[in-house]
Amino acid sequence: MTHPTRALVDLSAIRDNVRLLAEAAGRPVMAMVKADAYGHGAVPVARAALDAGATWLGVAFADEALALRAAGITAPLLAGVCPPGADLVAAIKAEVDLGVGSIRLVREAADAAVAAGRPARVHLKADTGMSRGGQTVQGWPALVEAALKAEAEGSVRIIGIWSHMACSDEPEHPSVAGQTAAFAEMVRYAENAGVRPELRHLANSSAALHLPDTRWDLVRPGIAIYGLNPAPALPDPGLRPAMTVTSTVTVAKRVPKGSGVSYGHQYTTERETTVALVPAGYADGVPRAGSGILEVLAAGARRRIAGRVCMDQFVLDVGDDAVAEGDEVVLFGPGDRGEATATDWAEAVGTVSYEIVTRLGGRVPRVHTG
Ligand SMILES: *Cc1c(COP(=O)(O)O)cnc(C)c1O
């Protein structure tokens, strides 16, 4: 592996986190591996999650689902977001379940099922108060009716009813009780209308951990599988961050007092000092908003990035400490060695840990261990 920056992904942490979540929720787990498993590598993570007892996998798009199938993964698999033009025929042939939140999509799934030669397996999406995908209470009866009609015709099988929480990381938020009640109501409506779902599911990571009334038949954790606390304001249940991003010092040199560092000279050395160059930049997922803010572990200590993060590199001012070309730099990780975590980085730049790990650049190799 020649690229200087790499993401080590500890699959044993993934397995431990899946087991912890299944135990905490007391429910089967659909491991959410969308967006290349939040940047961790979808295929190895999916296999690890299944090894640890996850019974389902979830992704956003059909193409992500087909990539898992192409890798030989046969577990039940839900593609939750089906935009116009998605290759539903290929998905249905590959036994990928489809999240269906509109009558348009019921029709498309039914037509694709005829072409695929087998029924489309669908999960009806309820909008219980997030105003994202799915039908609101007003549109729900028509969606249920259309799906039941397609089921009676043999082109669709209604496998699930599902929805998504907007504020599960804030258990006191008024929307939590509202969404929980709306889901129960919409499930009841569909069941009274004749739907016999195998799975009713609502809970993402934070809901699975903190909101027992959202657990229903299966939980859909994402971020917690990767070991990142879904609700940093609430206690961490003992998750282990799976990803450690490291790089290597490529240049270490003395510069005089008053040297401007990186673009715009946002940082100037206060005295003669050693600067170390680290070959990771915003193309690799180091947020440029973290210029002069983010801390990395280098030459035995946590050090703040000096000046601007460039596309491919950033600079550290290590003072008179010993540092040499080839020394390891830890950008973030589980924190065991004193390095920052993805959650620390997120808080420092005003985002969530989800974005820090998911936006890791495509040129950073993911190296799986454990
Ligand atoms: C991403 C996603 C999840 C997982 O959310 P986390 O907060 O990462 O646990 C669950 N369900 C749906 C529909 C999602 O889009």
Structure description:
This protein has 370 residues and is α/β, with parallel strands linked by helices. It has two domains: 11-225, TIM Barrel (Alpha-Beta Barrel); 243-369, Lyase, Ornithine Decarboxylase, Chain A, domain 1 (Beta Barrel). It is built from eleven helices and 19 strands. The strands form three sheets. A nine-stranded mixed sheet has the order 11-14-17-16-15-18-10-1-19. Strands 2-3-4-5-6-7-8-9 form an eight-stranded parallel sheet. β12 and β13 (267-268) form a beta hairpin. It is elongated. The structure holds pyridoxal-5'-phosphate. The site of pyridoxal-5'-phosphate has 11 residues, from loops.
Bound small molecules, by name, code or SMILES, are: pyridoxal-5'-phosphate
Number of helices, counting only DSSP H or I runs of 4 residues or more? 11
How is the main sheet built? 9 strands, mixed
On the 0 to 100 scale, the average pLDDT is 97
Helix/strand/pairing class, anyone? Answer: alpha/beta
The beta-strand count equals: 19
CATH architecture descriptor of the largest domain: Alpha-Beta Barrel
Roughly how much helix do the residues carry, as a percent range?
25-40%
CATH T-level topology of the largest domain: TIM Barrel
Strand order of the largest sheet: 11-14-17-16-15-18-10-1-19
Q: Report the β-strand fraction as a percent range.
A: 15-25%
Write the layout of secondary structure elements.
Blueprint: E1 6-10, H1 11-25, E2 30-32, H2 34-38, H3 42-51, E3 56-59, H4 62-70, E4 77-79, H5 88-93, E5 97-100, H6 103-116, E6 120-125, H7 140-152, E7 156-162, H8 174-193, E8 199-203, H9 205-210, E9 218-219, E10 243-248, E11 251-255, E12 260-261, E13 267-268, E14 273-278, E15 295-298, E16 301-306, E17 314-319, E18 328-332, H10 342-349, H11 353-358, E19 366-369
Parallel strand pairs: 1-19, 2-3, 3-4, 4-5, 5-6, 6-7, 7-8, 8-9
Antiparallel strand pairs: 1-10, 10-18, 11-14, 12-13, 14-17, 15-16, 15-18, 16-17
Helix pairs in contact: 1-3, 6-7, 7-8
